[in-house]
Specification:
CATH topology: Rhopdopsin 7-helix transmembrane proteins
Number of domains: 1
CATH superfamily: Rhodopsin 7-helix transmembrane proteins
Strand content: under 5%
Distance between the termini: 46 Å
């Protein structure tokens, strides 16, 4: 690494923020009745995957490097396995959410057939089962993802098989999934705009403006999230090959891999909420609808419900 203190001053705060944001998001999604549907369950699953990734990094990787623990380094492949499991679960859940959005807009009549609550729970179970088996086989049986003192971060074993697994099983696979997700989300956005034009005849000017702003937020959410994942994949695999400066390599690999889950929580969960039991800690993200749900009075809530009904295609129920 560029310097051992960077773990203390950079990676620890970032992983701590990621843990806090994603655990609070996971908790709040479960507590809010408005998220008791397919989209909510999938969002909670992604928040859980991101929270576990940040927590494992915070509680295992950071102490291992800071304290130079030989015993922890000896079993660092277990940490690497858990981190890859959580990372890939997050990517897979992201793809399921993208498909959820797509069907809700382009095939709303079939939405319940694919994404009822019971079927969504089955989808989540399959994602966990498939990802668990795949990561066990790839990253525990055939190729360890372990801490290498020479580079100061986690890396695959130096063998031809591990090189192939890292390139095809990790980089190309996840890049393909993220690219497909971006395509689905852009097509979904086109569908949202198409539907919004049909609804404009029955909307007031104020509602049309709110709907247009919601479209723009959806586009920003789509492009930022997909771009962040793709950028992280590119920097992680290519920067070490073309740069030797330890700080550049650090920010392109270690920092990017941890920070992507903080960004994912901020951009995707799209919640502004307040928890009374935690001194009304406010996490600022994207959607004002949930802020109104939690912070507004009863009159505002009734008005907000009317707006939400007209925008059901943007946030699947």
């Amino acid at each position: 690494m560029a310097d051992s203190n960077q773990v203390l001053y950079v990676l620890m705060p970032v992983s701590f923020i990621g843990s806090v944001l994603n655990w609070i998001s996971f908790y709040s999604i479960h507590k809010l009745a408005s998220f008791n549907h397919s989209f909510g369950y999938l969002s909670a699953n992604q928040a859980l995957a991101d929270a576990l990734h940040s927590t494992v990094f915070l509680l295992y990787f950071c102490p291992m490097v800071l304290l130079d623990q030989t015993y922890m380094k000896q079993y660092s492949h277990l940490c690497g396995f858990l981190l890859l499991f959580c990372y890939e679960l997050s990517v897979l859940t992201h793809s399921a959410i993208s498909l959820n959005r797509y069907i809700s807009v382009w095939s709303p009549l079939f939405y319940e057939s694919f994404f009822s609550v019971s079927k969504t729970k089955s989808v989540i179970f399959v994602l966990w089962l498939y990802n668990g088996i795949a990561t066990l086989v790839l990253y525990e049986k055939y190729c360890h993802f372990y801490f290498d003192d020479s580079i100061g971060f986690l890396t695959f074993n130096n063998s031809e098989l591990c090189s192939d697994i890292g390139w095809y099983g990790d980089f190309l696979k996840n890049s393909f999934i993220v690219a497909v997700v971006l395509c689905f989300d852009i097509i979904t956005l086109i569908g949202v705009r198409r539907v919004s034009k049909k609804l404009k005849s029955g909307m007031t000017d104020a509602t049309i403006k709110k709907f247009s702003r919601r479209d723009r937020r959806f586009l920003k959410q789509t492009l930022i999230q997909g771009s962040v994942f793709m950028l992280e994949l590119l920097t992680y695999f290519f920067i070490p090959q073309y740069f030797t400066n330890r700080w550049i390599v650090f920010f392109g690999t270690s920092f990017a891999w941890v920070a992507v889950h903080v960004a994912d929580g901020l951009v995707f969960i799209s919640i502004i909420f307040s928890l009374k039991n935690f001194c009304r800690l406010i996490v600022i993200i994207c959607n004002p609808e949930i802020r109104n749900f939690l912070l507004a009075d009863k009159t505002s809530l009734r008005r907000g419900t009317i707006v939400q009904v007209s925008s059901v295609v943007v946030h699947p129920q």
